[in-house]
Amino acid sequence: MLAVKNYTQEYVDECRARVDERLAKYRALASAARDLAGPEVGPLERAFGEFYPVFFATQVVVLDGCFANRLRAAEGKDGNPANEVRVIAASVLGGDRMLADPTIRFDVAKTVLHLAEGDSIALDEQDFTALASAFFAEIEKRYVA
Fold first, then answer.
1. pLDDT digits (tens, 9 = 90+) for 68-99
2. Is it the case that residue 1 has pLDDT exceeding 70?
């Protein structure tokens, strides 16, 4: 497929709605798990605690996949949220540690999640929602005509 220079606002909104739908399903599952677990941390709560970092990491891959064919030149190489999602998604596919991308100039302090090369990728709901929000804003800024 050819690189995409522009996305419609409608397409971006549809992608955002799919992400929101997945988050709603996650929240329903988390709530049910907490209700079943009760006040003590039991096997269900521990298993759920191991699940959510994997879930949110794979959701970054999904987020990146929605715009996988975006034109790199339009994305820039300044460490913006679109770059951050691209690198985290590639890192998740390669393991559970943040990889470097020598083509992008990251200032870790200015990124959404402040992940440096070699850091473990263990996102929670707050991390993912902050990253997704910044990512969609960046996509709209750079690709919506």
1. 999 999 999 999 999 999 999 999 999 989 99
2. no
Q: Is 23 helix (H, G, I), strand (E, B) or coil?
A: helix
Helix (H, G, I), strand (E, B) or coil at 114: coil
Backbone dihedral region for residue 114 (phi beyond 0: left; psi -120 to 50: alpha; all else: beta): left
- Asked whether the CA dihedral 84, 16, 136, 122 is positive or negative, the reply is negative
What angle (nearest 5°) sits at the alpha carbon of residue 56, between those of residues 47 and 16? Answer: 140
CB within 8 Å of 62: residues ≥ 6 apart: 19, 22
> Where exactly are the structural domains of the chain?
9-143
Q: How many CB atoms lie within 10 A of CB 27?
A: 11
Kindly indicate the confidence band of residue 41, based on its pLDDT and cuts at 50, 70 and 90.
low
Token match 């929101």: residue? 20
Q: Indicate the DSSP class of residue 117.
A: T
Give pTM, 2 decimals: 0.92
